[in-house]
Design goal:
Strand order of the largest sheet: 3-2-1-6-5-4
Number of domains: 3
Distance between the termini: 116 Å
Structural class: alpha+beta
Helix content: 55-70%
Strand content: 5-15%
Radius of gyration: 39 Å
């Protein structure tokens, strides 16, 4: 049976009514203050959760807009609506939280900025043809800058919460002084009272209060793992239990805040990598390096899917010096990595020693104890895996898996952007009809190869060829047949030239071939092989041509014998080409 403080004092010491009144008053105000403290902690904890959720959703806000600009899928509008609804809900709840002037001002700024960001997002999402839209890209770049500023402002919520925590520490110190003062007063009264009263109160009142005071001091000093053990069967025990709950709540909130800050910091740094380079190889190296550094994980690996061979292979990794991961390949559906790539399901292996279904060859080092493998891709298509490893004795936990899922999404976006960049870059230097390099690439590459030839004192030859009577072929059989003739001739050139040679479409029915480290006689011989192969090829309707076949006239020039400058070399080859035309066509002539 539990006996309260009042009954203990009144039943034992009737003569101590005065001291009892004082004790009741003290207990009342102390309990009231502590209840207010617990309520304040609840408010701070709720603010921490809300601001953390706000940071996460703000970080996700640009994702559907990016997807809409890249892919043009209207379903991204629905994704955007879901995210913005969550942001508005959080902001509305934050407005109902109490805070100082600084809190309210910052909240108003964040609300206004979120509205502005939302307006920009809506403007992009309402565009009918966003893909390749310059205006949409300009708005998107402005949104990225604006989003970074907005995320920085939301991070100030964390600082404000810490300020509130510090104020609570100051409040705890003030209450500590009050408890000390009370303790001193009670001590004087106890000295004046009977020894039995002193012993009784010491056992059931002063000692628990002192323990409570030490707990308040420890928690106020930031020792959130501190717990009180008071078994008095009265309000002091209930108060101690309340303090334990408060400390537990604060500890949980701090750990969650630290975890979310780490997650946001990592996502922010990974997102910065997206803007540093679009070259896939450089991007992969930067990603594994930055992810490992930000998450304090030495071993990180990105694997990519080879759809043609149905294999997953190690494309980039860190801290595997002793292991030869360059040759690491796994069939999809086989082992830890192949199965994750096939199913698109993330895998957490807490301890490889207790997981019996993992092939030994998938444990890439004897030092590894814990593994995370998270698929990434675009639009439900797996592109690869993001893998992380912890050496003994460390292990991953489930919240680590959630963090790596978020990071893997960023990796997927980065690699998809890189792929689109490479395709765009290739299109800029490729002739759309023949698939050969275009005239722009020809001049740039010829300039580069001439510089190499000058530096290393080597020969370089140039072939320019023109299809004889091509206008006649077009007029007789139509432009689609003429286009097919150009494509077939380009494919013949690819098969005939050597690996270092560079065939290009010069313009119209003219083609050019850059021949590095090739002398005049070798270039003439190659030109003759090309002329004969084209003349002998069974092109459709070749017999209708004035010469009875599809033929080409070829001009050849060589550096440095014919000219030492690019334009001069081109002109010499062009002059030789027209000389071949003048001598009856279907010939190879050198400058």
């Amino acid at each position: 049976m539990k006996i309260g403080i009042n009954k203990k004092i009144m039943g034992s010491f009737i003569v101590g009514i005065g001291m009892l009144c004082i004790s009741i008053g003290i207990a009342y105000f102390t309990i009231k203050d502590l209840i207010e403290t617990v309520n304040a902690v609840g408010t701070v904890s709720r603010k921490v959760n809300l601001t953390g959720d706000l940071q996460l959703y703000l970080n996700k806000l640009l994702r559907p807009v990016n997807e809409y600009v890249i892919e043009g899928e209207t379903e991204e509008r629905d994704h955007y609506d879901i995210i913005i609804a969550q942001i508005l809900r959080i902001l509305n709840e934050l407005k109902h939280q109490k805070g100082d002037v600084r809190w309210q001002e910052l909240l108003n700024k964040v609300s206004d900025d979120a509205s502005k960001l939302g307006e920009m997002a809506v403007e992009v999402l309402q565009m009918e043809n966003p893909v390749g839209n310059k205006h949409a890209l300009d708005i998107l770049r402005e949104m990225n800058k604006f989003s970074e500023q907005l995320i920085e402002k939301t991070e100030e919520f964390h600082n404000i919460t810490e300020d509130e925590m510090r104020k609570m520490e100051e409040l705890s110190e003030a209450r500590e002084k009050r408890v000390v003062t009370i303790f001193a007063a009670l001590l004087i009264l106890n000295i004046l009272a009977l020894p039995l009263l002193y012993l009784y109160l010491t056992r059931y009142l002063t000692r628990p209060i002192l323990a409570l005071h030490e707990g308040v001091k420890a928690i106020g000093g930031g020792e959130l793992d501190q717990r009180l053990t008071i078994k008095t069967g009265d309000e002091i025990e209930a108060l101690a239990n309340g303090f334990n709950e408060m400390a537990s709540s604060l500890s949980t909130a701090k750990k969650e805040l630290d975890r979310r800050v780490l997650e946001l910091f990592t996502l922010y740094n990974v997102s910065k990598v997206l803007n540093t380079t679009f070259e896939t190889e450089q991007l992969l190296v930067r990603l594994v390096t930055d992810i490992g550094k930000n998450l304090n994980i030495n071993r990180v690996m990105i694997m990519l899917l080879d759809e043609r061979r149905q294999e997953i292979y190690a494309a980039s990794f860190t801290d595997f010096e002793g292991e030869n991961l360059k040759e690491l390949r796994r069939k999809t559906g086989e082992g830890l990595y192949g199965l994750a790539a096939q199913t698109g399901t993330a895998r957490l292996v807490v301890d490889v020693d207790t997981e019996l279904n993992i092939p030994k060859e998938d444990i890439l080092s004897p030092d590894i104890r814990s593994i995370i493998a998270v698929p990434f891709g675009r639009r439900e298509k797996v592109l690869g895996l993001l893998c992380a490893f912890k050496d003994r004795p460390g292990t991953f936990e489930w919240h680590d898996l959630e963090l790596f899922r978020a990071v893997a999404e960023q990796v997927g976006v980065a690699l998809e952007n890189s792929r689109l960049y490479q395709e765009t870059k290739l299109m800029a230097i490729t002739d759309g009809l023949t698939g050969l390099h275009n005239h722009r690439f020809f001049r740039d590459q010829l300039d580069i190869e001439l510089e190499k030839a000058r530096r290393y004192v080597r020969n370089l030859s140039l072939i320019i060829l023109d299809i004889d009577h091509f206008k006649h072929y077009n007029d007789a059989h139509g432009h689609p047949r003429g286009d097919e003739l150009l494509r077939t001739l380009a494919e013949l050139l690819r098969k005939i030239v050597r690996e270092p040679d560079i065939p290009c479409r010069y313009g119209g029915e003219e083609f050019s071939i850059i021949l590095p480290e090739t002398a005049k006689d070798a270039a003439l011989a190659l030109g003759e092989r090309i002329r004969k192969a084209i003349s002998d090829h069974p092109f459709p309707f070749r017999e209708t041509q004035p010469m009875g076949t599809i033929s080409v006239s070829i001009g050849v020039s060589t550096f440095p014998a014919d000219d030492k400058e690019m334009d001069g070399l081109i002109n010499k080859a062009d002059d030789a080409l027209y000389m071949a035309k003048g001598e009856g066509r279907n010939k190879v002539i050198g400058a």
